[in-house]
Write a structure and sequence with these properties.
Elements: H1 13-22, E1 35-40, E2 46-52, E3 60-64, H2 74-86, E4 89-93, H3 114-127, E5 132-137, H4 139-151, E6 161-165, H5 171-177, H6 181-205, H7 212-217, H8 221-232, H9 238-245, E7 258-261, E8 284-287, H10 308-320
Helix pairs in contact: 2-10, 3-4, 8-9
Length: about 325
């Protein structure tokens, strides 16, 4: 993927981001069919985990999804199909509120949610005997890297290697990028269309949790994070959340093999905000192709095939497990 080039018929970062979600082939053969399991959390809440395969001795691939993603996301089904082809077990834990049912606690999820990722990986480690590797996509990728940064060498007790795809490594730069122009009109509107109703339902569960009027007036993710995401998860405001939640400043703290893949034409994170090789330490591998968009990377002939991304990323993980 470090030299990935998009098909000529799919030009530009926006097209390479949007087209694969709706039209590209996600898998060969039959659609992956998941088995759902519900886990109780230490704070009297729950998370739903979708599984593919039951062999506890083979390699387990855990995928952390992106903002408002799920096991039905295009990338989730593509990675599940790759795991199935390799004979691996696959699991996707849903961040709270993303499995189709509102969670119970007065919290949701966020890009720096390393404690939640660490708890989930600990549960997987207790349930699975074989090696475990993990991939995080977009928000899930940043949270996975934050876990690896915080855990240091102890991360190896739960996971052998990690990969982050299109992670918003600099949250402030990412919020700015999709808060203007095309990004504001398309991506921001798409996210807020699902996030605002969820937040209002959360307010119904926990009256007084945040200012409903401010949330209704939010027109971009920065405003939404300022009134909802930040205060619910222990941050002073959106600026504090972005500063403490971004993975980029601490990539050199990672002590397990970590792949960080970002296309340089990703509309969610400008190329100037990407880390350079000298900033990341010996355990981090950077792949920064010119093409791919945000979690796009469709290859081949029309309408595109999403298999190239999981094949290469999982191949890298296999070498480092």
């Amino acid at each position: 993927m470090h030299d990935f080039r998009a098909p000529r018929w799919l030009p530009g970062g926006h097209a390479q981001t949007i087209w694969p979600v709706f039209f590209s082939r996600r898998y060969a053969g039959t659609r992956p069919v998941f088995q759902r399991e519900r886990w109780a959390t230490p704070d009297a809440d729950f998370v739903d985990v979708d599984w593919l395969g039951s062999d506890a001795d083979t390699t387990l691939l855990v995928l952390f999804h992106g903002l408002e993603g799920s096991s039905a996301s295009h990338y989730a089904e593509a990675f599940a199909a790759e795991a199935r082809q390799r004979g691996w077990r696959f699991a996707i834990p849903h961040f709270r509120g993303c499995s189709g049912e509102l969670n119970l606690a007065p919290r949701a999820y966020h890009s720096g949610d390393f404690e939640e990722v660490g708890w989930l990986l600990g549960r997987f480690r207790a349930l699975h005997r074989g090696p475990i590797v993990a991939v995080g996509v977009s928000l899930g990728g940043n949270a996975l890297l934050r876990f690896a940064e915080e855990a240091g060498e102890s991360a190896f007790e739960r996971v052998r290697a990690v990969a982050a795809i299109s992670a918003p490594l600099d949250l402030d730069a990412g919020a700015t990028a999709i808060g203007h122009g095309f990004g504001r009109q398309v991506y921001t509107r798409m996210f807020l269309r699902s996030m605002k109703p969820k937040a209002m339902r959360k307010l119904g569960q926990h009256p007084g949790l945040f200012d409903a009027g401010r949330l209704r007036r939010a027109r971009d993710l920065r405003a939404f994070d300022d009134v909802f995401t930040a205060p619910l998860h222990g941050f002073r405001d959106a600026a504090d959340y972005y500063a403490r939640g971004s993975a980029k400043p601490r990539l050199a703290d990672i002590r397990i093999p970590a792949l960080v893949l970002n296309a340089r034409n990703d509309p969610f994170l400008p190329a100037f905000a990407l880390p350079r090789a000298g900033e990341v330490g010996d355990h981090v591998t950077l792949w920064q192709p010119a093409h791919g968009g945000h979690v796009g990377f469709a290859g081949g002939g029309w309408p595109g095939d999403l298999g190239v991304l999981p094949a290469q990323v999982v191949g890298w993980l296999a070498e480092h497990r």
